Amino acid sequence: MLNRKLWRDLWYNKTQFLSIFLMAFLGLLVFVGLDAESHGIEKSGDTFYEAYNLADFWIKGCYFTKDDANKIMEIDGVNQAERRLHIEGKAEHLHGTDSNAQTAEEDNEPYMQLEFLDTQNISQMKVLSGEPFQEDREGVWLDDKFATYQKLTVGDTLTIKVNNTEITEPIRGTIIHPEYVYYTSESEEMVPSYGTFGCAFLSGKEFPGAGNIYTEILVDTDADKNQEQIKEKIKEIMDNPDIIIMDRTQMLSFSTFDAEIEQHKMMTFMFPMIFLLIAVLGIITTMTRMTANQRIQIGTLKALGFSRGRITRHYMSYGFWISTLGALLGAVTGYYTLPALLRQSMQTTYVLPVWYVAISRNSYYAVIIEVAVSTWVSFMACRKELREVPAETLKPKPPKNMKHSALEKSKMWLRMSFQTQWNIRDIIRNKARTSMGIVGVAGCTMLLLCAFGCYDAFQAFPAWLYEDLMTAKATIVLSDSCKQGDAEEYAKKYKGQMIEEEAIELTANGKAKTGTLTTVDDGNLMHFQNQDIKEIELNQEGIMMSAKMASVLGVKAGDFVKWHVMGDDTWQNTRITQLNRVPSSQGITISREQQKKLNYDFRATKILTNHSVPADISDDLQVQTLSDATQLKQEMVDSMKVMNLMVVILVIAAAVMGIVVLHNLGVLSFIEKTREIATLKVLGFRTRKIRGILQMQNIWVTTFGILVGLPLGYGFLLMLCNSVSDSMDIVPVITPYSYALAIAGTYAVSILVNMMLSGKVKTIDMVDALKGTE
Amino acid sequence: MKTLIEFKEVVKEYTRGEKTFYALNHASFQIGEGEMVVILGPSGAGKSTLLNLLGGMDNASGGQILFDGADLTTYSDDALTDYRARNVGVVFQFYNLIPTLTAYENVALMKDIEEDTLDPAEALRAVGLEQQMHQFPSQMSGGEQQRTSIARALAKNPRLLLCDEPTGALDTDTGREVLALLQQMSREKKKTVVMVTHNSMFAEIATKVIRVKNGRIASVTENKEPKDANEVNW
C-alpha cells in the first residue's frame, strides 16, 4: 500500500517530480549519448588500427635498404618492419565530375599523396572494391572517396604525375587506410573536402626511377613491450643522425582523430554535471517540502507501527524511482539519438570503415551515481522528520525560530518598500530554493552564452585567418622540385612574399611536439598578432612561438626551447622572444635574416601574392597548386556550418533547463506561499500587486543568476576552445551582441515562466487556503 | 480479570530553557484486559502524554510501564515499533488517514507490517463502511473518516485500542455512533479500549475512569454499570 501512496504522491506532485525526472533524463541523455559516441568512435578507430595493423613507428630521413629493415626486425619487441616511399604528386588528365564543369576544371590536377610499398604487412589498406594489393602487380589502389568524387572505378586508368614523370596505371581497387583516417591537402584546411584530393597506393616497382627509393620504414611492435626502449634501440642500430622516429601521436591522422575523441570525452563530463546539479537541487527542495508537508503522515505511520527503516525506504524510493526512471530513459534515448546526430559531421571529417556506437563503463557508473545521489538526497531530506519520537512528529512543526538578519536590523531596512522587505525575507528563509533558482538561471545563461560564443568564434575564425593574418589573395604552393631560383622568379613576377614551411620537432620541459617552422621573407602579406589579438611586428632576434604551442610545451616568452628541422639533426636552442596566436599549424616563426643566422638556406615553399595569377600556373612543374584565398575562406565558412547544429542543441538545452527549473521553483514557492498570498488577498491587495511582488523576486533571482552565469559561460567557452586540439587555436570571442542575446534570452525564459504561473494567483480561494491544515 | 497494563510511578518531564515541566508526575494505575477506560481531564493535564506513553509513541523519563508484564521503558526504538505494530491500534482526533490512499487502501496498509491482519473489506464492513470502501478521505464525511480510522486500528487485531478524542471533530450524532462502535469492540471483541477526552459525559460509558489533573492522577474510579453509548447525551 505504501507503494500506492508513492505513485499517488508522485502524481499529485507531478510538476516537481517531472522537473527532477527531466533533469535526470537530460543529464543521462547527454552523458550516455556523448559517451556512446566518443567511446564508439574510439572503438571504431582502435578496431580499424588493430585489424589493419597500423604501424607503431615511422622511421624517416634517408634511404633505407632491405638490410636496414631486417636489422630493425631483429630488435626485441619488434614484430615487423618494412619499407615504403611517401611522396606527393598530382593526378592528371581527369575528366572530373562532369555534372559540374567548374569544379571539374579546378580539379583538373588534384593533389595526391602517394605511397609506394615494398611489401604490405604493416598499415594495410582495407579494399572496398576490386582486388587485394599485391606487391608484384602493377596498378594503383585508390582512395575510395577520391574515386567516388572523380567518378573513377576499378578498371579505369589513372595518370599520376610524380617526380616530373607521368605514370599511367590501371585502378585495381578502391581502399581506405588506417593512416588516412584524417588527412588534408593543405594545412590550413580544418574540415577536409575529401575527393578533391586523394591518396593512392602502388607497388614500389611502379615508381619511375631506378635504385633504392624507400625513405621510410614502418615498424610494428609488440604493444606489451616498452616502446621507448624500442625507439632507443632503433636509434642505436640505425646509427644515423639524420633519421627521425615518429610514433603514432606524431602522425597527423592519428593525433587529430585522437584529439577529437578526447574533446568529445571532455564534453561528456562537462554538460551533464549541470543537469545533475540541478536534479539534486530539485530533489532537495521537493523532498524537503514533501516530507515537511507529510510530517503528520510520517507520525501516523510511526504510530501505526511502521519501522523507521520502512518509512525511510518509502521516502527514499521517491528519489530512487524518479531518478532511475529518468536516468534509464535518458540513457536509452541518448544512446540512440546523439551518436547518430553527431556522426554526420564526423563522417565528413574522418574516414573509417565502421562507425560503432559503444558505451564505456562510465555510462553505467553515471546511472548508478545519479540514482545513488538522488536517493541519498531524499534520505537526507526525510531523516530530520524521522529522528523524533512519533508523539512529536504527530504534532505540527513548531514555527521556525525567526531571527532578524543583520540587514533587517539596519536602518536601510525601514526605508525599503513592503514588497522589497517581503521578498528579502522570503529569500533569506528559503535559501535552498533560491540557490536552486540561481543555479538554474546561471546554467541557462551559461549555455546560451556558450552557444552564441561558439557561433561567434567559428564565424570569426575564417575572417581571422584570411583577413587579419594573411592578406594575400592567392597562394602559390611550390612543389618539391622547385629550386629557390625559380621561386625568386615567381616572387618577382607576382610581387609576392616568399614563405618557407618546414616540419620541426620541439622539446621543452621533457615534452616533445611536432610543429611547423615558418620562415618569412620580406613583405607585408603575413601578419602576426600577440595574445591580446593586437598586431605585432616579427622580431629580428630570437623566435616567435605560437601561443598554443607554448602552452602545450609549458613555456613562455623568455624561455629557451630546443628544436630541429625534420631530417636535419642539428638541434637549435633558441630563446622565445615573442608569442603569437595563429589558428592552425602551431609552431615557430622566424624572419629570413634570423634563419640565415641559424645557418639554414632559405628555400621557399609558398608564395603569397595579391596580384592575379593565371590558373594554368599549376601546370608548371615547380608549382603544386594555386589556391585562392576567397575560395578557401568560403570552403571554411561552409565547413563551419556543421557547428550550427551544436549551437542549436545548446540553445534548446538552455531553454529547457531554464523553463524546467524556474517553473518548478515557481510552483514550489507558490504552494508554500499560498497562505501568505491568501492573507494578502484578504487584506485587500490586488491580484496585480501580488503578481508584482512575486515577479520582483523572480527578477532578482534571474538577474543574480545571469551575473553568475556570464563569467561561467565565458569560462566554459574557453575550456571548449582550448580542448579543440593541440594544432588548432580558436580565440573565444564573444560579441556584445551575443552577450545581449544571452541575457535577453534568459530574461525571456524567466518572464515566460512567470506568465505561465501568474494565472495561479487568481485561482487561490481565500477561504480554503486559510482554513486549517488537512 | 487479568491486568494488561500497569503504570508504576511514571514521570514525564520536559525541559524548556532552565524550567522543568512535569507532563506526568508519578502516575500509577492499572488497566485490566477487556476494560473500556476513559481518561478525563482538562487540556494540558497530561492526558495525551499518558496516551503516547501507553502507545509506545514517546519515552518516559522515569518509572515503569508494564504491558502484559513486560516493561516498555526498557524497550529499544525497534522493540517499541514492534510493540505498536503488534499490540496497539490508534484512533486519532483528526483521523490521520493517508490522503492519497482510499479507505480500503488505508486499512490494507496494515498488511505491509503485519501478516496476520483482518481482511480490509471485513474490517470496513464491521464499522459499516462497505459502501464507501473505495473513496478517498477527502470524499468522506468526518464520521466516515473516523470509522475508517477505527477499521484501520482494528485490522491488525490489537489487544489495545487507543483513542485520542475520537469524537472531538465530530457532531453529536456521529460522535455517538463512533462511541457505540468502540464500546461494541470492548464488549464483543474483548478489546481493551483506552479513550482520552475532556468530555466528562463519556465517563458514564466506561468501566473505569481515570481523572488527570496537572500531570497527576487525581482519581481512579470503577464503574460497575456502564451506560450504553446510545444513551449518552452531550
Protein architecture, described:
Chain A has 4 domains: 1-53 and 249-400, no CATH class; 62-242, no CATH class; 416-469 and 633-774, no CATH class; 474-611, no CATH class. Chain A has 22 helices and 21 strands. The two termini of chain A are 21 Å apart. In chain A, a hairpin with a 2-residue loop joins strand 6 (157-162) and strand 7 (165-176). Chain A is elongated, with a radius of gyration of 33 Å. The model of chain A is unreliable at 96-107 (pLDDT under 50). By secondary structure, chain A is an alpha+beta fold. By secondary structure, chain B is α/β, with parallel strands linked by helices. Chain B has one domain: P-loop containing nucleotide triphosphate hydrolases (Rossmann fold), CATH 3.40.50. Chain B is built from 6 helices and 10 strands; from the N terminus they run βββαββαβαααβαβββ. Chain B has a 6-stranded mixed beta sheet, sandwiched between helices. The radius of gyration of chain B is 17 Å and the shape is globular. The two termini of chain B are 31 Å apart. The relative contact order of chain B is 0.19. The chains are: A alpha+beta (774), B alpha/beta (234). Chain A binds chain B through residues 1-2, 4-5, 8-9, 12, 296-297, 299-308, 310, 389-392, 394, 774, and chain B through 48-49, 52, 55, 57-59, 77-78, 81-86, 88, 90, 92, 94, 96, 98-101, 105-106, 108-114, 152, 156.
Counted beta strands of chain B: 10
Helix content of chain B: 25-40%
How many separate structural domains of chain A? 4
Describe the strand arrangement of the main beta sheet of chain A, using strand numbers.
2-3-8-5-7-6
Q: With helices defined by DSSP (H or I, 4 residues minimum), what is the helix count of chain A?
A: 22
Q: Outline the biggest β-sheet of chain B.
A: 6 strands, mixed
In total, the number of strands of chain A is: 21
Mean pLDDT level of chain A? 83
Approximate helicity band of chain A: 40-55%
Strand arrangement in the largest pleated sheet of chain B: 6-7-8-3-9-10
Largest sheet of chain A: 6 strands, mixed, barrel
Strand content of chain B: 25-35%
Rg of chain B (C-alpha, Å):
17 Å
Structural class of chain A: alpha+beta
